[in-house]
Every structure is written in structure tokens, then in C-alpha cells.
Amino acid sequence: MVGVDYEVIIIGGGPAGSAAALNLSGCGFDVCLIEKKNFPRETLCGEFLSGEVFNNLKVLSIDQQFLSLNPSLIKSFKVFFENGKSFSGNFDFNAFGIKRSKFDSFLLDNVKSRGVKVIQPGEVKEIYKDREKFTLKIKQPEGGEIVLKTRNLIAAYGKQNSLDLKLKRSFSTNKTGFNGIKYHVSSEYFNSFEKDEIHIYTGKNIYCGINYVDHETVTLCLLQKRMENVGSFKQHLLELFNSNKNFNRILKKSFVEVINNQKVYGTGNIYFGRRNKVENGIFMIGDAAGVISPLSGDGIGMAFDSARLAAEILLNQKKNNKISQNSFKFYEKNWEKLFASRILISKILQKFLLKSSYKKFASPTIDILHHFPSFSSIIVRKTRS
Question: Between 325-354 and 373-382, two packed helices, what is the crossing angle to 10 degrees?
Fold first, then answer.
């Protein structure tokens, strides 16, 4: 099968894929990136960027361009529980809020400016592998098909993709019960919510994070654990509004009236468990390698770090002029070093926020965090690099 050949092909144009392309092109690789959707587009995300992300932008020399987008500076956080208790803390790094549509477009524009071949929109429908190369069949909207070949393939397609089934990934048929949604809401529907804060509100089997993403827009990102499809997400958001008095207090009554007209961005059946970091010789990066809880961890930071790790390994392979199974083992080992502990802590925090199995410990733990805010700052650091 004849096809155009590239040193590296990346599937996915979000933060992980774009970061990988920027790192690799900076090292002289001939790179092709495939993104199935036109930008700008929204996707489920807490839209919180930590200092870890900003440091990566500095390394890529695009930090000043990012600041020119006028992201919302976030300095502190507050957590409000259904029982009325709360705790808060300050970040010891510069954090930002920005719409994913804006951030992703910014990154991909920089990828294009570095001379990377970008196929967009284009959906990878098939992947074949022989002893030396991968062959990819890419479908385009007008019905055409492109065939590409590469020795090095990176998957950066996010939490879920039809390729998971085709690659026979172990989790692809699991029913998790975790569902997430995001709304963008005008700030006019909020009472006294500071622009430099991020808030988290908890309810029964649900929690919601809110923060500014520009001067007039607030993002609401909710995660819910529900094994049965009972009621809509909007109904569950209104349940949180009614059950958490602090959430009720920060939202104006008019919010309830307009919520049915708000556009929803969501993902169902989110899998937070273990995923293989290498599948049939494909480097998995970002959420494709492992998903961290969106309101207690830093998925975009992990996307950048895993992209840089994969790029470093491919550069070393290029210098040695060979692909080695040791490279895959090195990637898996170092991925675990970078992220395993923070994912574990994030899972514990997620269970705590959802009050599934930690309910009897919740009240004394909240009291400790309230009276000793330095503990909460330590927890924040443990879910970042």
C-alpha cells in the first residue's frame, strides 16, 4: 500500500498532540499531526492551567504569546461541602483559566507555524503494522482517503476514541458510571465570585468546579458517578444547586431559568483506571495514557509532560538509529515515575469529594483542612509535578 512517509505521526491535535509536535519539530523531526475536528471546538475540561503548564510553555518559547490571550489569573481555591463546611488555600504557582477552544487553537496554530504537516479534519479509521512501519488510513469529510506511513506513531486522541476498540484496549468496553459535563455561563448569573479563585462544590455522587475563563465567562465542570441513567445532567446540576447552600448562594436565581438553554459539552463513561502506556508499539500520551480527575488533578500538565517524555525517547532513538523495545519500557517506567502517585492521590480525593466510601471520615478531615490550610496546599502540590 503506497503512502506518504513521515518520521513521526501524531493522532490528535489537543494539548498532548500539539505539545508532542512542537517538541519533535524543534528537534528536527519530520512530523505529521492528524486532528479529526475543525478548530475552534470545545471539549470536556476543567479549563485550569497550573504552573506546570506555564513552565512547559516557557520551554517551548510560547509563554508570552499565551499571556497575550489574556487568560484569567487564578491565585486560590475554595472547596464547599454539602454539609456546609469548607476549606480554602492559595496556590504557590501562577495558575490560569482559559477556554479549551481558545487554548487548543493557540497551540495548533503554533504547530502549523513550525512547519508541521497538519491534516484537519481527518479521522484515522485503520492502523496496520508490519515489522518496520505503521500504515494509517485517514478519512476526510468529503469522502476522500489518505494513506500515511511512519516508523513512529503517537496517540494523543484524549479520553475516548473509536481507535480504543480497534486497538483492543482492555478498558474500552468497561461501564464506569463516571460522566462529565461542562457549561460556559455568563458571569452575570453569579454573585460575588472573585475572578482569581476556583471553587469546588460537592453533592451526593457529584461535584462541580467553577472558575473564570475570560473576563465575562465562567466555566462549570461537573463530574458525576451514577450507574443508572436517572434524570438529565441539568437535573443533577439543579439538585446540587438545591442541596449545597454555598452553591445556591453563589448562583443567582436567574441561573435556574436559563440553564436549559445553555450549551452542554460532555463525555460519558469516563475511565479513570489503568491504561497501557504503549499499545502495539504506539506511544500513548495525555489522556490516552491515563486520565486524572479533572477537579483534583492537572490533566493538561500531564499532557505536556508525557509529550515531552515521548519526544525525548524518539530523539534518543534517532541518535542511535534504531527502535528498541527498551524505549517502550523506558517510557512506561518513567511515565509511572512522573504520574502514578499523583493519579493515586487524585483518585482518593475524587472518592472523598463524591463521598462514596469516605463519608465517615469526611467531617473530621474537613475540620483539619479548615484549621490547617497548609495541608490543602500540600495536597495540591502532590497532584502536580
Answer: 150
C-alpha cell of residue 271: 475511565
φ, ψ of residue 283 to 5 degrees: the values are -75, 125
Instruction: Write out pLDDT tens, residues 2-12.
Output: 568 999 999 99
Find all residues with CB under 8 Å of 348, minimum gap 6, and list them. Answer: 358
Domain layout of the chain by residue ranges: 4-73+96-174+270-351, 178-268+354-382
DSSP H or E run through 214: none
DSSP for 10-73, please give it. Answer: EE--SHHHHHHHHHHHHTT--EEEE-SSPSS---S---EE-HHHHHHHHHTT-HHHHHTT-PEE
DSSP string, 246-285: HHHHHB-HHHHHHGGGS--EEE-S---S---SEETTEEE-
> Model confidence over 49-106: pLDDT tens digits?
988 899 999 999 999 999 999 999 999 999 898 888 888 888 888 899 999 999 999 9
Nearest to 33 by CA among 44, 46, 18, 23: 18
Task: Outline where the chain has alpha helix (H).
Answer: 15-26, 51-59, 63-67, 100-113, 162-166, 233-243, 245-250, 253-258, 299-320, 325-354, 359-371, 373-382
Please give the Cα distance from 153 to 284 (Å, whole number). 9
Domain 4-73+96-174+270-351 has CATH 3.30.470.20: no
Question: Can you tell me the distance from the alpha carbon of 371 to that of 385, in angstroms, rounded to the nearest whole number?
Answer: 26
What DSSP state is assigned to residue 333?
A: H
**Residue 65 CA from chain centroid, whole number:** 21
Beta-carbon neighbour count of residue 165 at 10 Å? 11
Q: Which three cell numbers stand for residue 38?
A: 475543525
Grid cell of 174 as nine digits: 468497561
Strand, helix or coil for residue 75: strand
